[in-house]
Amino acid sequence: MTTQYLPPPRPGAHEDAFPTAEPETAGAHPPRDSDPARATDGDTHRRWSRTSVGVLTATAALLAGALVTHLVMTFLSLAPPNALRIGNQRTINAYLEPEFQQNWKLFAPDPLQRNAAVGVRLRTTADDGTAHISEWINLTAQDLDEIKGDPAPSHAHQNMLRNAWDNSENWHGPNDLPKGIRGKVAVAYLKRVALQRVGRQWEGERITAVQLAGRYSKVSPPSWSSEEPSDTTTYQVRPWWPVTDQDYKGL
Hints:
This protein is an alpha+beta fold. The protein is 34% helix and 16% strand. It has six helices and seven strands. It has helices at 50-78, 83-87, 89-96, 139-147, 156-170, 180-198; strands at residues 114-125, 131-133, 137-138, 201-202, 205-218, 233-237, 241-242. Strands 1, 2, 3, 4, 5, 6 and 7 form a seven-stranded antiparallel β-sheet that branches. The termini are far apart.
């Protein structure tokens, strides 16, 4: 057997352990795929099939259509009454309620022209049985103090109190009595909202009854208006409502 030796490298030359094959023996490179549906992704040689491209395109179109539909439905629900909204009101309600229900309006053609404040006073009983009546507590002023100076205020408490008062006012019947079952529920809700603010005791005495009232005053006209400001203030005072342990359930 004849042993063959490789010639020593020339001085200064680098010996490649894996020399490049000669052109006539090197493997041919695969032709570049001109189909964009099967384009390669960099050096990973990942190919997108026609099915994948079709699925991605259909998904993008579906998401875009869902976004446009949601925006159109929301806009119609907040827009003033018009032919398109009235004709499709049932469809709009079926889409938005209850997940996407809105409680604000896109336009305000009739803004509020009065300031409203809700106050409460308490009837308390001491350990010796003596009853006392507190001064009026302005609950609305407490809510306003919480949000003043806050760069990201929450109006949850303010809206809860206002909605509770408005609801009880809508279901308030003659002789200071609530109208039907809905009226009784509105009274119970308003009372619980007030008790949530003041607790079970006031100045060390147990709360046995509450009385709520609304104070209304006209919004002052702007400085550039010639209208005279109104100093008329009106009140709506509710009767005393007894407080029991049931009223604190869940608070």
